Amino acid sequence: MSKPSAAAGPQELHRRLGLIDAVLIGLGSMIGAGIFAALAPAAHAAGSGLLISLALAAVVAYCNATSSARLAARYPASGGTYVYGREQLGDFWGYLAGWGFVVGKTASCAAMALTVGSYVWPGQAHAVAVAAVVALTAVNYAGVQKSALLTRVTVAVVLAVLAAVVVASLTSSASSPARLGIGDDATFGGVLQAAGLLFFAFAGYARIATLGEEVREPQRTIPRGISIALGITLGVYAVVAVSVLSVLGPQGLAQAAAPLSDAARAAGADWLVPVVPVVRVGGAVAALGSLLALILGVSRTTLAMARDRHLPHGLAAVHPKFKVPHRAELLVGAVVAVVAATADVRGAIGFSSFGVLAYYAIANASAWTLAPDEGRPARVIPVLGLAGCLILAFALPVSSVIWGGAVLALGAAAYGVRRVVAARTA
Question: Labelling 412: which of 216, 256, 280, 330 has CA 20 to 30 A away?
Answer without folding.
Answer: 330
